[in-house]
Write a structure and sequence with these properties.
This protein has 127 residues and is mainly beta. The chain contains no helices and 11 strands. It is 0% helix and 48% strand.
């Protein structure tokens, strides 16, 4: 199955920017996979941040709309999350996820339970 590796986390001051990248071990586009970013703050449940699917949609959680941008480079099998205007409440471990677009309809794309393939996570700290 596809393996995912996140990179790009770190510490930044409030109002700053960070870019996260997720590299897949194979072509998610050719396999018809959707990709997404989730995050989990300490003591809280994992929540959807943004999702992109080759079938034609990109979704964002309301909390990040206008601040985060999700993009996909099919040639490099990567998906990136550009984060700007970061707030302390964005502090969390960020996880990349992938799964078939057959089981990820837009209405459920930000529900973590639908996704089966996960990266190990990368920490983002905003102070």
């Amino acid at each position: 199955h596809v393996q995912l590796v996140e990179s790009g986390g770190g510490s930044v001051q409030s109002g700053g920017s960070l870019s996260l990248s997720c590299a897949a071990s194979e072509s998610t586009y050719d396999r018809g996979y959707c990709m997404a970013w989730f995050r989990q703050a300490s003591g809280k449940e994992r929540e959807g941040v943004a999702a992109i699917c080759g079938s034609g949609y990109t979704l964002y959680a309301d909390s990040v709309k206008g601040r985060f941008t999700l993009s996909q480079d099919n040639a490099k099998n990567t998906v990136s999350l550009q984060m700007s205007s970061l707030k302390p409440e964005d502090t969390a471990t960020y996880y990349c996820a992938a799964d078939s677009d057959v089981i990820i309809p837009p209405s459920l794309a930000l529900e973590s339970g639908r996704w089966n393939y996960w990266g190990q996570g990368t920490q983002v700290t905003v102070s």
